């Protein structure tokens, strides 16, 4: 190889070794192999050489071009690897360290609503009762006087689980009413309970979820009447929504586990969504006096004891109170949504004045 080619090789190798970042590397590549690079200029000079010199020098230039191209690409790979190592070192996270949250945690609106309900009903003498999410067919339906042909027992509405041989299949509870049945089977009256918790139904859209939350209540004593039920629910709704003059209406309805049964409406404005005014009515919950058959199924003498029961969807009343238009974001784990609708955990649910037993 002639002196000028050897010199170009040494000069390029030295420059590549000194290049510490990709910008310097690219300048070397262009200066050697580019359109106006040193090696390109030498290749252009072949046209002035004799045929014998052209053959010999052309072969040498081609070998040099291959060698320099390989050296330049090798240096590029080395610089890329070094840059990646530096980035990994700078972004390294020690996963054994405790978290450093950017802000304080917030209480989910569902949890907040359940706390408020517990506070209001607790002032009325209700205790919290719990039960399993997987229930027997008898506790979820039969004990509550729900007949075998009732639509709620179809697989289109209810999640049934595999059953043991010859046994009725268990279900994901469709309401928290089985907790009421469990309470009547295990407690001596009189008592008052509320049963908040998860429930499951085969439905999903903007206003329905296959998993949602309900709170149901049961009061059992001697000589209870519809007047006690109406006073209890009217006080609760006015305290929960913070509207002492909230209009409350009771309408006759039908539920298999209560007799008589009533749906409860509150006043609102259909056009603006404002609660407490507007002349329109919005159904909010179901209620009624416990059916004598339900009492008898749970071992309680319906001639000596009376009870009233009620139930409502927690998501529904939360959406009304906070002005949330869609049910689905409750379960999408969107931190932006939670930061907007969440509650400071250091500010517990306040018990509204005027709520009594």
Model description:
This protein has eleven helices and nine strands. The chain folds into two domains: 3-90; 109-341, 2-Layer Sandwich (BirA Bifunctional Protein, domain 2), CATH 3.30.930.10. The protein is α+β, with helices and mostly antiparallel strands and 357 residues long.
Main beta sheet strand tally, sense and closure: 7 strands, mixed
Mean pLDDT: 86
Number of strands: 9
- Terminal-residue CA separation: 105 Å
Main attributes of the structure:
357 residues; alpha+beta; BirA Bifunctional Protein, domain 2; 2 domains; 7-stranded mixed β-sheet; two-stranded antiparallel ribbon; 39% helix; disordered C terminus
Topology, pairings included?
Elements: H1 3-18, H2 22-33, H3 38-44, H4 51-90, H5 109-123, E1 127-128, E2 134-135, H6 137-140, E3 171-172, H7 177-186, E4 191-200, E5 211-221, H8 226-240, E6 248-255, E7 258-268, E8 280-290, H9 292-297, E9 306-313, H10 314-322, H11 335-341
Parallel strand pairs: 1-4
Antiparallel strand pairs: 2-3, 4-5, 5-9, 6-7, 7-8, 8-9
Quick overview of this protein structure:
By secondary structure, this protein is of the alpha+beta class. The protein has 11 helices and 9 strands.
């Amino acid at each position: 190889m002639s002196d000028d080619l050897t010199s170009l090789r040494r000069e390029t190798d030295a420059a590549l070794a000194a290049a510490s970042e990709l910008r310097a590397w690219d300048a070397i590549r262009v200066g050697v192999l580019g359109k106006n690079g040193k090696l390109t200029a030498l290749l252009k000079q072949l046209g002035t050489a004799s045929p014998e010199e052209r053959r010999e020098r052309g072969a040498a230039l081609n070998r040099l071009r291959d060698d320099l191209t390989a050296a330049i690409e090798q240096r590029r790979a080395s610089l890329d690897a070094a840059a990646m190592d530096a980035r990994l070192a700078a972004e390294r996270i020690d996963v054994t360290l405790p978290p450093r949250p950017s802000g304080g945690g917030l209480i989910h609106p569902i949890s907040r609503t359940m706390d408020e309900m517990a506070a209001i009903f607790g002032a009325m003498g209700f205790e919290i009762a719990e039960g399993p999410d997987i229930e027997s067919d008898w506790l979820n339906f039969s004990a509550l006087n729900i007949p075998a042909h009732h639509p709620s027992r179809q697989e289109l509405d209810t999640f049934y689980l595999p059953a043991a041989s010859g046994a009725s299949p268990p279900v994901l509870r469709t309401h928290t009413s089985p907790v009421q049945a469990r309470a009547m089977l295990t407690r001596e009256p009189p008592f008052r309970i509320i049963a908040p918790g998860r429930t499951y139904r085969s439905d999903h859209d903007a206003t329905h979820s296959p998993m949602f939350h309900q709170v149901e209540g049961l009061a059992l004593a001697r000589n209870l009447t519809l007047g006690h039920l109406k006073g209890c629910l009217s006080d609760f709704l006015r305290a929960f929504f913070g509207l002492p003059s909230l209009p409350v209406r009771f309408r006759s309805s039908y539920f298999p586990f209560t007799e008589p049964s009533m749906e409860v409406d509150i006043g609102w404005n259909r056009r603006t969504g404002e609660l407490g005014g507007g002349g329109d009515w919005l159904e909010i919950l179901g209620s009624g006096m416990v059916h004598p058959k339900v009492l008898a199924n749970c071992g309680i003498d319906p001639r000596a004891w009376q009870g009233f029961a009620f139930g409502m969807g927690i998501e529904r009343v939360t959406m009304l109170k906070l002005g949330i238009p869609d049910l689905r974001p409750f379960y999408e784990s969107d931190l932006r949504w939670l930061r907007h609708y969440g509650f400071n955990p250091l500010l517990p649910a306040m018990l509204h004045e005027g709520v009594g037993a």
